[in-house]
Design goal:
heterodimer, A: mainly alpha, 2 domains, two-stranded antiparallel sheet, 22 helices, B: about 100 residues, mainly alpha, Helix Hairpins, 3 helices
Amino acid sequence: MTAADFQALLPFMCVAAAAVIVMLVISFYRNQTLSAILTLAGLLVALASLPIAWSHAPRAIPPLLRVDSFALVHLALLLVGTVAVTVFSQRYLEKYRMERGEFYILLLLSALGALILAAADHFVAFFLGLELLSVSLYVMVGYIFVKEKALEAAVKYLFLAGLTSALLLFGLALIYAALGSMEFSALAAAVAGAPDGLSPFLVAGMLLVFAGAAFKLSVVPFHLWTPDIYQGAPAPVTAFLATVSKGCVVAVLLRFFAPLDPASQTGLFSALAAVAGASMIVGNLLALLQDNLKRILAYSSIAHFGYILVAFLAGGENGPAAATFYLVTYFAATLIAFGVIGYLSPTDQEADTVADYRGLFWRRPGSAALLSIAIFSLLGLPLTAGFMGKFFLVAAGAAAGLWPLLIILTVSATLGIFYYLRIIIAMYSGEGRKSEGRTADAPFAPTSATVLVLLAVLLIVIGIAPEPLLAFIQAATTLAP
Amino acid sequence: MTIGIEHILAVSGLLFVIGFFGVLLRRNTLVVFMSLELMLNAAMLALVGFSFFNATMEGNVFVLFIIAVAAAEVAVGLAIIVALFRRRHTVQLEELVSLKG
């Protein structure tokens, strides 16, 4: 390893070092605020080191990682998501009388796993990144172990993530059998060398890898426990689950499947298209039946990853850029939504039923406004980032001629109006009846308020002027086939 | 009889399928967890076998990583199941119904 290699790996090393430092500090002096500050510092230093790593990109660090502009864009996104989760967690955990410092070690390790996935260039890095992400997340989901729901969600997440890694591992083994190598580049070479058809080992392996990733993205038919886990996990952890742990899987999937040409792999890609279509329909339909805000967001996230799969299937020049752009908008809106839910939750329970939000605007206008912006963006109203995200997805899909999927996308997305507007209507109704709903009264901490407002401003700025960000993402996410 | 790649695939595939259906069908969390480990072990067996037939060491090295990761997963997983048992006095999946829409 040369000095340049180390500089390219600085973001990873900062996060890893922060985890070790927080652990050492906790063993001498327990203070939740201090742990949170150290975690934030580590993440911000990692963010600050991205330009240094950028100056060395693209750089392969053999054999495991590849730090290129695609990886770095996703790294930035994942780190920003983790920063927001750290800020939300600090306030959320204050409500509980328990040992809280360890949460930040787990958060940092989980984030490190996500970063490794985004830069993985080898099966071993793929698997280790995924496991680092998941094993830390099991504990985070069940961290408030005095709550039965949290423990139940942790057990369900344990089995779901365990199944993910087993499927993925067997898929990787089959691909290894066909290729004799574990580097992603060998996959590209094998695809280029066999234009008329891949070996059955390779196709079966690809399907298993996709199934494993699909569990993590919770797309149909691998979505069954997602709403339970969203509902049971503490709100900041749900925010992490919904954003960082899914975003990194999208990144690795884009890189993994980049060498495949949809036109020549019709069997494989029609299976993926069926998954995308089913996710959009099922996610949007089942969200209609829910009364719980976290479950509504869970089903809507199933639909959102169906949308992202459209860009993934479109591939080519625009696919990765559209998927990444959509991830940015989805991250910002989802982080706001779960951040606000975490804030409004009183100690003994989560404020997560729609009834809790009745008349929220008249009690807490700021929270209601933030939540409204997030929901409008998730819905994809014009002038919000979500609209531009959907627009570029549809453009990428249309360029690839995926008409059936685009029709499903537009029709099922309109269903979103019904369940999202229910929340909006609840928030702005019931003027004067201030005692309704079980929401906490404590004011926002300045740090969280800053993060939430910045994210909301980002949603609106991207919605009005998406070109600079899109141009940047398009330049950075071109994956050489 | 010489052992070919298809034999390795058959044994590991069978173990993997047994584990998969164990995860889907069994209702005791400990048995589900064991089935998960069975799936991981099937994948490890496949990797070692394929490593032999590809005449590269990568598969063997990967298995060493997986063993370490699987051990960590078992430690964390069992701790969660024990914590659940202490609160709920059950390890049966069908009794975990407090989360429903």
